[in-house]
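Sorry to interrupt, but I need a hand with the structure work. Go ahead and set the record down below:
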Amino acid sequence: MAMGGQGNNRAVMAEINVTPLVDVMLVLLVIFMVTAPMMQQGVQVNLPKADTKAMSPADASVVVSVDKSGKVFIDKEEIPAGQLRKRLTALFATREKKEVFLNADAGVPYGEVVRTMADIKGAGIERLGMVTEPVAK
């Protein structure tokens, strides 16, 4: 009978406790979920004058423009203040490819451009490209 008891103890001791492993994996998952959108947002931002490879705009691409006075346009239609996110959400509701090109005047304050980018991203746009001019060499 003593041998049967020892056999059971050995079987119990051979089990691996996976709870700490699951805890670590969940923490890593949360970290990646939080940091992934930040990395994606920072990758596709170009400065007004940049020496980069040009993105090829699609045939039916949407261009959001901000002029020197801070007025916002979708293609050539002026959008009232505070309506950009709503208009883009409606425009892209049925489209599969959610891509917008931002064309901002170099004289527009940086804060205005960032606010416009936030409205574009808030409308569910997956890709945001900045329209730039090549650097003169």
In short: The first helix runs from residue 2 to 13. The first strand starts at residue 49 and ends at 50. Helices lie at 2-13, 19-43, 84-91, 110-122.
